[in-house]
Design goal:
The structure is a single chain. The protein is an alpha+beta fold and 359 residues long. 47% of the residues lie in helices and 7% in strands. The chain is built from 15 helices and 8 strands. The strands form 3 sheets. Strands 3-6-5-4 form a 4-stranded mixed sheet. A two-stranded antiparallel sheet has the order 1-2.
Length: 359
Amino acid sequence: MLVPYTPERVEKIKTVAGRRWHPKEKYWTVPHTDGAIAHLLSLLNGEPVEVDHCLRPVQDLDDRPLPLAVSHSKLLDRLSDALRSRHYSRRTEQSYCHWVKRFILHHAHPPEEMAEADINAFLSHLALKERVSASTQTQALSAILFLYRFVLGREIGKLEGLIRARKPRHLAGLRLMECLCLRVQDVDFDSNQVTVRGGKGAKDRITLLPQAVKAPLAEHLKRVRAVHQCDLQDGWGRVPLPDALARKYPNAAADWRWQYVFPADHRWVNGQTGKEGRHHIHESAVQRAVKEAVRKAGIAKHATCHTFRHSFATHVLENGYDIRTIQELLGHTDVKTTMIYAHVLNRGGKGVRSPIDSL
């Protein structure tokens, strides 16, 4: 089905459940089901539609047929029976069947003909190409291992060279780009904390939300939300999402919770889709503002955005907190890095008391 492009038709296609945009090929697909196709045709009623009989219908991943040998063996039925006999939940059954089918379709071979290297290749593909989370990759691995162990009666050996999806580490600290990449949902006014996701080293961090900034930050977010509402009314208001979240939650990009806390003044244009949205403010703008503030304040020392992080660490140490707490707040992997701040405090007059003061 070939339909000439117009913004109005695109908005109609977006109402079809399960629709999918392919940015590289620049076309939309809908699930190959009677309901979805009937809904699409009703939306396009009266409009010129050209049918190309040379085009094969593009099916959703779970609608694609399995290789013939697998279909004849009713492998998925056997997998479901094995799961149910062991009292796995219905949700787990659906998930395991989904991942086993993905595994088979990825290699286009029945699992009886595949081995550890094929499992490695599929799981590494999930981590590198699809950038799934560590928990999603683990779920796919569990489904495949269950298939081989309880359905095919075959134990899988050690998976050598498997590339695992990186699991976020929950630490603390705040850097310039981590600040600029904050989403609205990352700021918790009730708990007085800010969650930094996917920072340096792919670590999650939790840092403090000072009481002094809560009121002005809340006012700032009111203005940001008003801008976001205007963007939505104009047909935009979407932001880029990390990793595979855009595929998993196709409507999340327009959700208020996912908007940047510090959005740019002007909308950006996605070169692949042509859509407009708001990215976060560029780091150079903040760096210039800090540099100008330092100049106006008459501070003679060299000071940058990162100076605030060093100052935070120094003052927390001065307030008597132990070095391990500081390590967690800063997100340092090695405590030796944190000890640098302790060494700075112990130098010169701040670390040693003059004997004359005892007289």
